[in-house]
Here is the input.
Amino acid sequence: MGGVLLRVSRCWVIGMLVLAACGRPDGTRGDGSELSEDETARDPDSDNPTLRRQAMAEWFDDRHTGLDQSFSIEFRKRMLRTAEQERQRWSTLLPDPNRAGLITGTSWSNLGPTKASKLVNGVTLHVTDSGRVRTIIVDGSTIYLATAGGGVWKRTDGMWTPITETIGTLSCGSLAMDPANHDVLYLGLGDPLDQTSTGLGMLKSVDGGATWSSPVFVGFSSVITQVMVDPNDSTIVLAGTDLGLYRSTDAGATFHAVPVGVGLGQVWSIASTGAGSFVLSIQGNGAGQVFTSADHGATWTISAGFTSSSGVARITIASAPSNPSVVYGIAATPFFTLADFFKSVDGGRTWTALGVTNTSYLNPNGDSSKVGTILGGQGWYSQLVIVSPTAPDTVYWGGSSPSPRPPTAARRSVWSPTGWRSSPCPTCTPTTTRRRSTRLATCSLEPTVASSSPPTAAPPSPMR
Here is the structure.
């Protein structure tokens, strides 16, 4: 025993001598003096956030083998359980979602962090924010905003407040409101385009986001792309995930897998098309398909006509609030370009391609002259379609384009790009920030006047 103690003591002394000679992780020598910049750079014990994150991941989750891979299901569950325990233990110290709003007025402010220095889309960005917007829900004067990496924000009385600071993760996949009770919210965790985030399961709030339930795990899925509450039966909740469709018949208490097509695929988009009827898009093995249901999502039938000679991959769909049987879809090819825009007038059972890939804009610019370039090669990433809440023939499509040009005239029909552009140039107005922007194209399928901006009271829509 004494020999063992002696060896341990010697190791301890040697370790202390090495630490004193080489420096400590806090950037000082053993005598307390600071290391020089060169010594810090050579010091193997100096702090390295990337290596520290990798070490922590390996310590807590031996299945996480690299920073570019997602955490295991077991680890994500453990993180959410730990977060719940911490909420209970430190409840009096946690942020209060009912306190005064952090942002006032009509302008946006970045609350931080203000520096990330991370590589995104081929450029180094030195600022961070909440990430891509996943869902916007407008409920009168109240607005909910679910983001890919910044949680959910709520705007009331002109003030924005974060309402998910204590749930254990800020990775959001989709947010849905019960049409019959606007205090009931369902938050699907897990952003589909950043799967290293710790998102898992479904949370429910019955008080407008003031408090949230413990997560309900949706099978073995780790991403929830869209949540839809049945407008005709609040007990039925549909969840599109990376492992297919799941359905709840008890208001989100439990979820069960629903077969859609053959094999498992990722559900990208769900829309209501009338009493107990739905349409969804699913992608498996690189191929996209559309299915419909007439029994509250219990069974599904493949649609007809949603095809393209160039192939169809990811699909986003939306129905017209004023006439839900009218449905639109935007589809990418397997090469991430635009396959086509599609329209259905029978709730998604049959589709017609609109043949827009070679259609010219009324006001083209040097970056984009035809509708077919709207996705900018990012069809796997950038897709959006919204139908006017009052006019089923007015549709807004979104994609990615370096410098879309807004229209200069108040009147426009057929096809016109609108929205915002990149850096200043003589042919583009108005000016916004230099970032790879989203392009919106509006289509009035009849020669009528379309408004110069998207509707302010747009229905809840996924922002991809």
About this structure: The chain is about 10% helix and 30% strand. Helices lie at 2-22, 37-42, 49-60, 73-89. Residues 1-30, 402-464 have pLDDT under 50 and may be disordered.
